[in-house]
Every structure is written in C-alpha cells, then in structure tokens.
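stage 2 :: seqdesign
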C-alpha cells in the first residue's frame, strides 16, 4: 500500500511533526511505502527517514501515485482540492486551524471558549484579528469568515477526517462536516511506550509542564494557587511568550517564593520533575484538541487536575484518575488542587488509577492499528 503524507514542514518542530513522523515510522515497519509532500523547503534527515521520497512540488503526486493521501496541516486550499479530486484522502485535524479564524477557539477579549461555528460571532468577538509574527508590516493580520468557510469547503471531497477527541468531532460537525466521515483516534506518540510509573511522592509539590503561552492558562494556575490554604510549592516547566508576564503575576500575587520557573527543559530531562511531583495540573484556557501532556503525566502515575476544556474530559475522569474543574473557573481549580494536597492517600490512589488507565487505553500500537484500518478502508 502506498501512502502520501502532506504537511507544511519536513522537519521536527512540535507535537504535530512528532505524530506525523511516528505514524510514518510505524506504518513503514508494517510494510507501507510512503512519501511526503511538504510546503516549506527546510528538511531534516532524521525526520525524513521513514519516507521513500519527499518533495515540495506537486509532481510527486503523479510520480508516487499513492493509493491514499493523509493530509496533516495544510493551508493551501488549491492543493487540497487538487488532491481530493484525484486520490482518496483523509484529513488529520491536529488543531483548530480548519474551523477557527484565530486558530485557538477562545475569544480574545473574554478568554471564554468558543462553542460556535465560523460565522458572525467571529467578527463580533474580534476573532478575525491575529498578531502578525513578521518583523515588518502591520502588527495584525485579518482573516475573513468567507476565507475560513472556503477552506472548509475545499475539504468537501475528503473521504474522512481523524480527530483526537470527541470535542474536536463536535467542532467539525458544527461546521458542516458529516459526522459519519469523522473518526476519533487518540494521537499517541511512540515515546509513551518508554514511560513507566514512578514511586509516589507524598509532598506538596505541584507540577506544570508545557508552553507558557496565554492559551495554556499558566496565569489561571497561578491565580488558583494563590487561593490554596495549604502549604505548597509549584514548578512551571516550559517557556513561551507569557513567561515574563507570569513571573510578574506571581510577584503581584505574593506567591513568587513558592513558584519555580525552569524555562525550557529537554524532554529527556523531565523525569526528575515528575518524580518530585505529587500531581500535575493542566490549566488550559484554549480547548485542547487532545492534551497529550496529561497522558504523559498519567503514564508516570501522577494524578491530573485540569479544566474540562476541549478534549481533556476524554482522558481525565474526575474522581478516578484526577479532578476536573469547570473550564475557566479559577475557584474550582484552586479547590481541586487543595483537595489533593489535603489527602495524600487519595492523590496516590488517583495516580495509581491514572497509570493503569494510560497503559490500558492509550498506546501507540493501538493508535497505529486504528490509523492503518482507516487508511485501508479509504484506499
């Protein structure tokens, strides 16, 4: 079977690229021939190892002649249409780009999660404005609802869609994608198989791992911690454009001496921080398409406290492997954190359940099998 992947990048960058690479590597070991059509010219030899060939031009479509195409992050509507009219194709929807002008699915003014399709509310809530990352030119870029809907329409001939959670499935349905074309397959990287449960720590150490950007809600976590009555210490592992503002917020809240900001930490060095933590927190402001960081914590035997945002309730079951707080409710988040600090035995039990749940329900082998079955059905 011949599979063509289509993606913007041909090098490691983030979670999307890791899943793409792991998918290609796993399918290669199962006998699939694979090629990559990428947009950006930069390449990485290790990233390209599972592919028989890779190219930036459309000539690869005729040359490789795939049985099925798997599209990842692609913004070129003409490219999408030219593929779906010639080949069976599946779109793997890794994030909110397909249906959201802002790509974040929360309102920039209120910070509330958006549960509406692309339409008039995008204008009413200023979601058509985005920061311009370019050093020159206007400070913002503008995207219209018409452009967004044309992007969705360019997928009308797609055989199917893969999403990481039920929330993402509902998002596509709300924007006109037929429910019967959507398959929920949790995107589990190969690295999860190497993670083992760690001995439990009866401590007051709280851990956050992830980007320190507005959508990840580290500011929500800090405000929640300021309301926790028990002694505690928190470690924030990660970096991002909100790191400095979060440091200032910790000072303003009078909790700076209880919070360590580590900055960037290599993935292989995270074990130390998980080993010292009693539990982890996923305080996301944006609706996580899935929330892999929570699965990684669970696999290490750590209970998770998180907001019920996006795909998080697919894997975080309150009172079973952690505690859920209503999305954006800082008081509820603080009470959940306080509850675990007050009862180490309960926290340990949730952590044990978390490790068992991760081992049984979230495996790379299971993900690969589901993807292979879907691609074979589409071909």
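stage 2 :: out
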């Amino acid at each position: 079977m011949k599979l063509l992947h289509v993606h913007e990048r041909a090098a490691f960058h983030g979670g999307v690229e890791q899943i793409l690479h792991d998918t290609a590597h796993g399918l290669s070991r199962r006998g699939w021939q694979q090629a990559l059509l990428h947009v950006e010219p930069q390449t990485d030899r290790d990233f390209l190892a599972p592919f028989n060939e890779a190219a930036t031009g459309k000539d690869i479509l005729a040359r490789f002649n795939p049985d099925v195409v798997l599209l990842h992050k692609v913004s070129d509507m003409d490219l999408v249409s030219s593929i779906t009219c010639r080949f069976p194709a599946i779109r793997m929807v890794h994030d909110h780009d397909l249906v959201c002008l802002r790509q974040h699915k929360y309102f920039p003014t209120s910070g509330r999660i958006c549960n509406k399709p692309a339409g008039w509310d995008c204008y009413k809530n200023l979601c058509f404005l985005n920061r311009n990352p370019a050093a020159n030119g206007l400070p913002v870029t503008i995207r219209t609802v018409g452009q967004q809907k044309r992007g969705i329409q360019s997928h009308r001939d797609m055989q199917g869609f893969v999403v990481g959670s039920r929330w993402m499935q509902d998002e596509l349905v709300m924007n006109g994608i037929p429910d019967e074309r959507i398959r929920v397959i949790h995107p589990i990287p190969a690295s999860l198989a190497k993670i083992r449960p760690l001995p439990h720590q009866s401590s007051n150490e709280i851990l956050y791992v992830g980007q320190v950007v507005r959508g990840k809600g580290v500011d929500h976590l800090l405000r929640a911690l300021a309301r926790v009555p028990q002694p505690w210490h928190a470690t924030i592992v990660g970096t991002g454009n909100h790191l400095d503002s979060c440091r200032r917020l910790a000072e303003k809240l009078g909790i700076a001496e209880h919070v360590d900001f580590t900055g960037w930490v290599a993935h292989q060095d995270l074990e130390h921080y998980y080993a010292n933590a009693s539990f982890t927190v996923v305080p996301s402001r944006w609706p996580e398409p899935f929330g892999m960081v929570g699965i990684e914590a669970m696999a290490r035997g750590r209970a998770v406290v998180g907001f019920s945002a996006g795909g998080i309730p697919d894997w975080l079951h309150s009172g079973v492997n952690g505690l859920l707080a209503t999305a954006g409710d800082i008081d509820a988040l603080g009470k959940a954190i306080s509850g675990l600090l007050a009862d180490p035995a309960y926290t340990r039990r949730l952590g044990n359940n978390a490790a068992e749940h991760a081992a049984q329900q979230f495996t790379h082998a299971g993900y690969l099998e589901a993807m292979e079955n879907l691609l074979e059905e589409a071909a």
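stage 3 :: structure notes
- Residues 2-98+155-188+364-378 form a domain with the Rossmann fold fold (CATH 3.40.50.2000).
- The chain has three domains: 2-98+155-188+364-378, 99-150, 194-361.
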